[in-house]
Amino acid sequence: MKDLMRIKCLISQDIETLLNQQIKKEAHSSSLYLSMSSWCDQNGYDFSADYFAKQSEEERVHQLKLFKYVLDMGGNAISPEVSGIKTDFAGFREVFEDALEAEIAITQSFKNIASKCHKEQDFVTMEFLNWFLKEQREEEYKARRALELFEVIGEEGTGRWEIDKHVNKITYSEQ
Amino acid sequence: MEKACIDINELINVFSNTQGSIYQSDKLNCFYIDFGGKFARYNCLSLQKLKKVVENIDVEALLLNTTKADFELVTFNGCEHIYLLSALEIVALKELLQGTFTMFKLNYMVNDCLNRLVY
Ligand SMILES: [Fe+2]
Ligand SMILES: [Fe+2]
């Protein structure tokens, strides 16, 4: 008997489902960052607004990268519905706390997919995921560094103004 | 007509239960579901979609809902077939599809061992 399912598609249904869930999570991240950008802009944190707008764009790129992979492998990529995006934040600091929390959740999610790939011996998808695993290093680093500014600079006086100015300058390099 | 189709296209019985059967045609690269008085053709994608749709039906809720008959329409966009199934039939179709996909998995492993990984 021909293996019709395998002829049609490189990835298993389980992996396809996980990747589609990840597509949705990246779309959610993108919308959340945009929401953070809006909040920052309205509260006078211009540099942070730019920073989050850029992050939002990056998440969109992540989403499309996953989307293309699923399709290229012969799977069914699903355009996700995104709802329940937080639009109000208690303060400047909470925005950054939420951003780090969101990145941690994404890292965990990728680890979960990677673990499934190992179980199935899907080394092709594993190799594809490596890019994202590496990307999460940078994403978490930047989010953590940003939050640390609140400790280093402090929020009193012109502190928030100072923090806002520094957010855009955070960069990550491996060396 | 069903019998004729099975003979002409040399259909392989992938999985059967008391309510129906699913066949594969290596000649036409497609599947046939013999279920609910229907003999319907599916391709890979539509068979996967049907499985998802059937698995998403909450049979328990269907039985507990007293305002509605215990029947459910089973179809999806782009599907040429519609099934009107009772709760019991849904359970049977679910089993039929799950059994079929388990056989696919098994076939995949057998293909690996017999064809793909030999040198
Ligand atoms: Fe991302
Ligand atoms: Fe991210």
UniProtKB/TrEMBL annotation, chain A:
It catalyses: 4 Fe(2+) + O2 + 6 H2O = 4 iron(III) oxide-hydroxide + 12 H(+). The keyword Iron applies. Transmembrane segments: none annotated. It is found in: Cytoplasm. It holds the Pfam family Ferritin. Its main location: cytoplasm. Its EC number is 1.16.3.2. Keywords: Cytoplasm, Iron, Iron storage, Metal-binding, Oxidoreductase. InterPro entries: Ferritin, Ferritin-like, Ferritin-like_diiron, Ferritin-like_SF, Ferritin_DPS_dom, Ferritin_prok. Residues 9-154 form the Ferritin-like diiron domain. Gene3D superfamilies: 1.20.1260.10. It comes from the Bacteria. Iron-storage protein. Belongs to the ferritin family. Prokaryotic subfamily. This is Ferritin.
Automatic annotation (TrEMBL), chain B:
It comes from the Bacteria. This is Uncharacterized protein. It comes from Pedobacter fastidiosus.
